[in-house]
Structures are given as structure tokens and as C-alpha cells.
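Run folding on both entries below.
>entry_1
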Amino acid sequence: MTRPRAALTFTRLPDIAPEAILAHMSHPVTARHMPLLKGGWTRDTVAEFVTAKEACWQRDGLGHWAILADGAYAGWGGFQKEGAEWDFGLVLKPERFGLGMAVTRQALAFARSDTRIPYVTFLLPPSRRHLRPLERLGARYFGRVDHEGCEFLKYRLETG
């Protein structure tokens, strides 16, 4: 029996209850694959996080969205300018991990329609083991890179 697909929508992070983001980012499974996640999260941390992500929208005209599955908060992700490159990041709630490829495909469709984004990069922690789906999308491995003092696996996908 196949499970029905969730209807995915993207909205802005300020539209999400801070408690939902706090519970998500405090979950130990979430932290396991986020080497840049330091210390515990509080309501103040959530407010700073949302403010920083909204600043990307103001600065670059694009940023991270809150992701809703059938209207319920499932995580966050989107595009962030890292130097001259647009990096795609995705952080789903553990019980929503199975939506990763569907969310990524929807976000990449957006990127392909935006002339500012000739390609997308993905920085993944070395703890990630299931990389074949990303490669099936056409992303190519670029090597290991240091980002803010942590090692990541870098992939690149042409969108043009």
C-alpha cells in the first residue's frame, strides 16, 4: 500500500509558531546532522534564527522558507547566498525525513525558473550516508570543504 503524498507549500518562517521551530531544532536527531548547530535552543535563539533568515530575504530577495506538509510545519529550507553561490539547505523534522526529495524537487523547480540561480550548491555533513538521490537529480560531487570551521561534502547542480 502506498502512502498518499503530502501537499507541500512554502511560507515564511515568521508565519510559524516559535514553539514549533524550537521543538524541531531541539530534537536530538535534528542536531545529529547539523555540525553548525551549537548549544541548546531557546525562544531567543529561535527569534535570532528567524531574524537572520528574514535578513537574507531583504538582502538577496530570496532565502529560507518554512515548509508545510498538508498545512502542518514539517521543517525549513531554501536558498542562501554563500559568496557568489546559491546554497540549498533543508532541515526537516525527523518524522518528515521522507519528504526530502519531494521538497528538494519543488525548490529546484523554483531555482530553475529564477535567472539569478545558474546552479545550486549543497553542503552536506559527512554523517550523511544516503547521497544517491542527490546524484540522481544530477548533482555532482565537488569535494570536501570547510564552512565556518566544519567539514562538509559539497555538491553542485546546474539549474540553467
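>entry_2
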Amino acid sequence: MENGERRLRTVDLARAVGLSTQQVRNYEDAGVLPPAARTEAGYRVFGERHREALLTYRALQPGYGAVAATRIMRAVHDGDVAGALALVDAAHAALHEERAALRTASEALEALAGRETSTPSARSGEGPHGLRIGEVAALIGVRTSALRVWEAAGLLVPGREPGTGYRVYGPADVRDARVVRTLRRSHHLFDRIRPVLDDLRRAGSSAALRAAVETRGHALTARTRAMLAGSAALDAYLE
């Protein structure tokens, strides 16, 4: 602690940032704070730098989460600024992947727009026996071999006709096949398509999934802004 700097007891620092004294102790032990000086009696002595560290950590939390924020601050206080920034980069990369997955879902919803209830082709699979693989292939414009590959990859799960074992595609199966075709044409890999289909089946309809995608989009935007605010606070702290 520099000469002339205001000395803060644990209780003073806790009150300054709205925490309990135990939380302050825990944060020092976790590396969120720089090591505190000690009096001859063993009491912690904090300064302005510790208050700034706590405020930085709290600014990081909303966007990066408590675990990542702790790791970032610990790396800074260990003198590993590059490592701290690498953790920031990793968090932004993960957020980018979430946005990419959301765009994939949006593309799938565009492919389904107006087809579930308004077009004859969407209703043609609603008969008592559904559609055979050749009919579905012709309907969505792919080869039957493509449908088999998608099924083998776990993207499609058509039923089987009793007795013959022939594949039978109901309306939901036709919908899923249409989604896969659209996303494959946009060069999405199976691992990116599978979660979209899972979400669509879980939601039960494209309308429900569209609402979920919109909600998730707002949440990602809020998190991005929180991460920007946290990054700004960290940059100021590093200065």
C-alpha cells in the first residue's frame, strides 16, 4: 500500500461496495482482490486498489458470470494479464457461437414460414398413413439417399409401417426434413442442425420456437452489452 493512501478496514471496504465482511475475506482468498496488507495483530488492511478490484469484479459478473470473472481477476493479480485477456476472448468466442446457433434456428424458421398450415405440400403428409420416403424426397427436392443419411445421423426419426417396415413420414417428419435440407444448403454441419431440430420438437411448433428464439436473441444482446461494460471496467482497472 502506497504512503498516504487511505487505509480501509475489512468493514470499511465491505460498506463501501455493499458487501458483508465475510464476502470481502472470501474474495481476497479467491484472488478476486490483490493480497491485503496485515497489521501486527493480523488484521487485514485494504486500500483504494482493493475497492477498484471489487467494483471491476462486480462489473464483470453480469456478462461473464461469477466463475469466469473470478478467474479473470485472479489471473490479473497473479501478473498474468495475457491469460486474463485470453479468458475474456474465450467468453466472447462462446457468445459468438451462441449467436451463430441462433442464426441457424432463424434460417430454419424462415424455411418453415407459411408451410406448416398454409400450403398443400405441408398438409399432404397428414393422411392416416403419412408419406413414403420417395414421396418426401420428391416433395422437398432431395434424393432418397439424402433422407437416409440424415436419418442415420439422428436428424430424422420417421416411423415404420407395421408389417412392411417401410418408413412413414408424418407432418412433423416432413417439416424436419425441410429444415435439414435448407440448413444443409447453407452449409451447416449436422452438429449445428441437431440442436435446432431438438428445440423445434421441444417447442412443438415453429411459432413457439420463433418466440423462444426472439427471447434468446434479446438475452444475448443484453449479455453482449454487459460484457462490453465489464471489459471497459477491466481495461480501466488494468490502467
